[in-house]
Amino acid sequence: MRHEVMKESSEKEILKLLDEKPPFMVLFFSTPFCGKCVIAERNLESVLTQLPDFPIYKCVVDYAPKVVERLQVTSAPSLKFLVNGEVVHTSFGIRTTDDLYYNLSPYVKKNENPYEDFDWGIGE
Predict the structure, then answer these.
(1) Which of 30, 47, 93, 124 has an alpha carbon within 20 to 30 A of 80's alpha carbon?
(2) Burial of 39 (C-beta count, 10 Å sphere; 0-12/13-18/19+)
(3) Given this model, what pLDDT does residue 104 score?
């Protein structure tokens, strides 16, 4: 039996998080019975074992139509990086463990948001 690193979140939980606008979070989008989603999730879970307490949430698109619409999710598997409730980066498809670690680890190592001073042209 595999240890579950990333728990599936309900649509209600994710919408509440989006409304709270945390400083940083990542959403992993998948669908049931999707072979590519299973591979992407395994790669992601492999990396997450090295990044404890990482703010990532799994969203099954079939059960979260409001989240899908709100964040304009167009495919699964995909990852959306959010800063203060706004999407700043989207990654599609199966990512290698090296790529995932490279993209996720700066948030853990610095214990802060590396995009904080970057002008994404959103808000304000």
Answers:
(1) 124
(2) middle
(3) 83
